[in-house]
Amino acid sequence: MDLPGPIHDFLLIFFGLGLILGGLGVVLFTNPIFSAFSLGFVFVCISLFYILSNSHFVAATQLLIYVGAINVLIIFAVMFMNGSEYYKDFNLGTVGDGVTSLVCTSIFVSLITIIPDTSWYRIIWTTRANQILEQDLLVSNAQQIGIHLSTDFFLPFEFISIILLVALIGAIAVARQ
């Protein structure tokens, strides 16, 4: 979307806050149904980020695949579980003790130390070089999507994969209960 600067910045901050609150809802809600709906809200916020960055096809794909298929599948799986037995046997102390918090803290600290040391200037010039190559070459839409996913939208693509990995690990933990 070609929006004026302040409106674009406001929407980025608004969707970012929605993304953070939705992620906290996934982690902090004790009811799995609420967590699944919060995960759907996170996926919608990510697709809105794609719309703001003028990649409408990736946004539509995000909505159809992640919200429309994967999140609905997670909600159906949670709804088929017997809720009363789940809450009787569920003890928060057995979910990971200190190992999970240690792993999450180490990942957070490593990201906090790596991100400021990254040479963003070279990444920007690599992206611009890829855009010049795209203009010179006749590439199809599928190739352009592949190029954009591996250059411009690499970080959001990896965030989605991490969110799906966390959802998969959570589903395995729930299934083991």
TrEMBL record:
Enzyme Commission identifier(s):
7.1.1.-
Chief location of this protein? plastid
The source organism is Rhizophora stylosa
Write down the Gene3D superfamilies for this protein, in alphabetical order: NADH-ubiquinone/plastoquinone oxidoreductase chain 6, subunit NuoJ (1.20.120.1200)
Assembly and partners? NDH is composed of at least 16 different subunits, 5 of which are encoded in the nucleus.
Q: Which InterPro entries match?
A: NAD(P)H-Q_Oxidoreduct_6 (IPR050290), NADH_UbQ/plastoQ_OxRdtase_su6 (IPR001457), Nuo/plastoQ_OxRdtase_6_NuoJ (IPR042106)
Q: How does it sit in the membrane?
A: Multi-pass membrane protein
> What is the enzyme's class at the highest EC level?
translocase
**Protein task:** NDH shuttles electrons from NAD(P)H:plastoquinone, via FMN and iron-sulfur (Fe-S) centers, to quinones in the photosynthetic chain and possibly in a chloroplast respiratory chain. The immediate electron acceptor for the enzyme in this species is believed to be plastoquinone. Couples the redox reaction to proton translocation, and thus conserves the redox energy in a proton gradient.
Q: Which reaction does it catalyse?
A: a plastoquinone + NADPH + (n+1) H(+)(in) = a plastoquinol + NADP(+) + n H(+)(out); a plastoquinone + NADH + (n+1) H(+)(in) = a plastoquinol + NAD(+) + n H(+)(out)
Q: What sections of the protein cross the membrane?
A: 12-29, 36-53, 59-80, 92-115, 153-175
Q: Please give the family membership noted in the entry.
A: Belongs to the complex I subunit 6 family.
- Alphabetical UniProt keywords: Chloroplast, Membrane, NAD, NADP, Plastid, Plastoquinone, Quinone, Thylakoid, Translocase, Transmembrane, Transmembrane helix, Transport
GO cellular component assignments: chloroplast thylakoid membrane
What is the name of this protein?
NAD(P)H-quinone oxidoreductase subunit 6, chloroplastic
Question: Subcellular localization, per the record?
Answer: Plastid, Chloroplast thylakoid membrane
Q: Which GO terms describe its molecular function?
A: NADH dehydrogenase (ubiquinone) activity; quinone binding
PANTHER family (alphabetical): NAD(P)H-QUINONE OXIDOREDUCTASE SUBUNIT 6, CHLOROPLASTIC
